[in-house]
Design brief:
The complex is a heterodimer of chains A (120) and B (133). Chain A is of the alpha/beta class. Chain A has one domain (7-119): 2-Layer Sandwich (Transcription Regulator spoIIAA), CATH 3.30.750. Chain A has helices at residues 24-41, 58-73, 85-94, 107-119, and strands at residues 7-10, 13-17, 45-49, 77-81, 102-104. A five-stranded mixed sheet of chain A has the order 1-2-3-4-5, with helices on both faces. In chain A, 34% of the residues are buried. Chain B has a single domain (2-131), classed as Histidine kinase-like ATPase, C-terminal domain (Heat Shock Protein 90), CATH 3.30.565.10. Chain B has helices at 12-29, 33-54, 86-89, 104-110; strands at 2-9, 57-66, 69-78, 113-119, 123-131. Chain B has a five-stranded antiparallel sheet with strand order 1-2-3-5-4, covered by helices on one side. In chain B, a hairpin with a 2-residue loop joins strand 2 (57-66) and strand 3. Chains A and B meet through helix 2 and helix 3 of A and helix 1, helix 2 and helix 4 of B.
């Protein structure tokens, strides 16, 4: 039942594509796995792609927000990409603001944004 | 006409089961992707409240037809401690669980109708409806 989310490394960036609905355990496991991978690879950036995710509740939002803050403590920047219109609408209506979070329309733009950020 | 199905909430996995049930019913009723996301999210929040505050309870999903309009009704019922101050929990930003759960005002905004009944020591019954327009 516990499926782990694959984390890929491309040069100095980690790439994560979340492909299925996250349950609580998978989300927490992902948080730990990503931080361990950051530590292990010394990656400087992370792109988390949410294109396949069709809803985000407050718990998943909190896990995502936390993982972004934790990565930043470890010196890595995180970009969230591919948030669907329905997800953006429900998050705001629910009252969740992912403030100070770097976002981009898709994976390609996300990687570009991260590269610019890391070179700046 | 009403047609119902339900999920008992006892573990974190039941939260997933409840929102999947709700999403399937919403899809079958013809709700669009944005409303499906609203309904799924509302169920997830209500199921998590039951899991966090009452320990166990039930999420019931009903199909409604009223004046020729179809809708979906979510009933979140538990026999938990009840809510001491409803006014307070309906304020944005109020949480007693350390930031978990966006709370009931969020669920109210996602749905069309929202009713809450709670009795201290007996439990809470929340009914939230979304109409298909």
């Amino acid at each position: 039942m516990n499926v782990r989310i694959p984390i890929l490394k491309l040069r100095d960036t980690l790439i994560v594509s979340i492909q299925w609905e996250l349950d609580d355990q998978t989300a927490i496991q992902f948080q730990e796995d990503l931080l361990a991978k950051l530590h292990e690879t010394s990656a400087r950036g992370v792109v988390i792609d949410l294109t396949s995710i069709d809803f985000i509740d407050s718990f998943i939002a909190k896990v995502l927000g936390d993982v972004i803050s934790m990565s930043s403590l470890m010196g890595a920047r995180v970009v969230i990409t591919g948030i669907q219109p329905a997800v953006a609408i429900t998050l705001i209506e629910l009252g969740i603001r992912l403030e100070d979070v770097m976002t981009a329309l898709d994976l390609e733009n996300g990687l570009d944004k991260l590269q610019m950020e890391l070179e700046a | 006409m009403s047609n119902q199905s339900s999920v008992e909430i006892q573990t974190e996995w039941d939260i997933v089961a409840a929102r999947q049930l709700g999403r399937n019913v919403a899809k079958e009723l013809g709700f669009g992707t944005v409303d499906q996301a609203r309904i799924t999210t509302a169920i997830s929040e209500l199921a998590r409240n039951i899991y966090l505050y009452a320990g166990q309870g039930k999420i019931e999903i009903q199909r409604l037809t009223e004046n020729g309009i179809n809708g979906i009704l979510i009933i979140a019922a538990d026999s938990g401690p009840g809510i001491p101050d409803i006014r307070k929990v309906m304020e944005d930003g109020f949480s007693t669980s350390g930031g978990l759960g966006a709370g009931l005002p969020g669920v109210k905004r996602l749905m069309d109708d929202f009713k809450i009944e709670t009795t201290l020591g007996e439990g809470t019954d929340i009914r939230a409806t979304k109409w298909l327009r």
